[in-house]
Automatic annotation (TrEMBL):
Residues 109-173 form the Mechanosensitive ion channel MscS domain. It comes from Corallincola holothuriorum. It is a multi-pass membrane protein. Belongs to the MscS (TC 1.A.23) family. The chain crosses the membrane at residues 22-40, 60-81, 87-106. The lineage of its organism: Bacteria, Pseudomonadati, Pseudomonadota, Gammaproteobacteria, Alteromonadales. It comes from the Bacteria. InterPro entries: LSM_dom_sf, MS_channel_C, MSC_TM_helix, MscS_archaea/bacteria_type, MscS_beta-dom_sf, MscS_channel_2nd, MscS_channel_C_sf, MscS_channel_TM-2. SUPFAM superfamilies: Mechanosensitive channel protein MscS (YggB), C-terminal domain, Mechanosensitive channel protein MscS (YggB), transmembrane region, Sm-like ribonucleoproteins. PANTHER family: SMALL-CONDUCTANCE MECHANOSENSITIVE CHANNEL (PTHR30221). This is Small-conductance mechanosensitive channel.
Amino acid sequence: MEENIADVQKYYDLIADFLVEYSFQLLGAIVVLLIGLWIAKKVGIWINNLCLRHHVDVTLANFLANMVKIAIIVMVVIMTLNQLGIAITPFVAAIGAASLGAGLAFQGMLSNYAAGLTIILTRLFTIGNTIRVQGVHGVVKEINLATTLLENEDGELILIPNKHIVGEIVHNSAAARVIEAEVGVAYDTDIDKALAVIQEAIAQTDDSQDKANNNDSEATESDTLTPNIGIDRFDDSAIVIGYRVWVPSLSFFERKYALNKAVIDALRRENIQIPFPQRVVHQYKDPAS
């Protein structure tokens, strides 16, 4: 029993001596750490707002703000360790060795971070752009160091590791996608009339879709792009008229189906024939028979 009391007394004395000797250092280190974290947060917000006021891209602004914030936190941690009287030189050597091992173990993850840094600095695309890469379409919702988040028309979120974007062929159509379609008309059709009918159908479809989506007051990028309509080629049984129409990415298929129906309805209403492939067979009678 006396031995247990002696052990408790020994640990009590040890803790008391530590608090007496290092209490002010520990308190000072905590104060320095809290103040440093507060300053890092405020400076990060200030850098982000400053970049946005100067019309810097949102992704790049967030990246710069986070880098400055991390740099301040690292300096604060070093100051805190010095306040406690802890030498940081052994830690630097240990961190260097650990970084080498981690780099080999997590090289796939690190390649994602390197690719993300490339995307952010080169501004390969920005938030709100529509991109197609690796067979995937979508509007860019977030650009992080490791991944890029896309959203398609169905509301699905697609997370792509950045290493699968950098070095690949990336199609960037800003905030719009193009509908490419065609329809055949008979050779005896008045082509000017057919082109005018299709153009009117496209215009009416765009207007009705904008009203349905309440976009009367907001001009999108697709509204500034003029549809292309013209003769695409001459087939055996029809003159093929092609049309290309830019629409918002998140309503691509909705607009495409509505547009195709409007075109065929307009052609039928104007009695413009849409022919099907035909084969003409000539039968000759043998004179000898």
